[in-house]
Please model this.
Amino acid sequence: MYSVNAPVPGRVRQLASRLYPDLHGFDRVRETHSLLVKRLGDAPDVNALQRRTHRALAGAPAVEAAVTGVEYFADPPVGSAPVVYFAIESPGLERIHADLSDVFDPVAELEGEDYVPHITLARGGDEEAARRLAEREIDPIRFTISELEFFDGQRRLPVSRVSLPA
Model:
């Protein structure tokens, strides 16, 4: 599965590291973090998919974003529950997602109108632990998304980057 992701700034990764001990009760804890913008699917011609993605991003501006808190999905549409995550506030990122959704079909229940920008911290396990984490106050972390990655989910590697404005 290929996707477009936004790199996660060091300050956000540091905050995730500080929360790491409180995530020990979950089935899976993320050690690397990403901010998914849009799933693109698979394609026999990766270069063509990449060119199509770059064309779809043409003119996209750099956007402001903020980690605004810790939240959780009690009943995610796929995978184990709960999913604990950093909530991301970014109207600009949501516009980029919508623009990409005009070119690449949204995944039902996960994208399009259902898109929730977030950075997953952990999933599976105790919902009460998720609730306690979501009650924690954190200082917002504001950052600028000035590039996006074309990401190969099978290899878990960025294939290329697009600077914003594109």
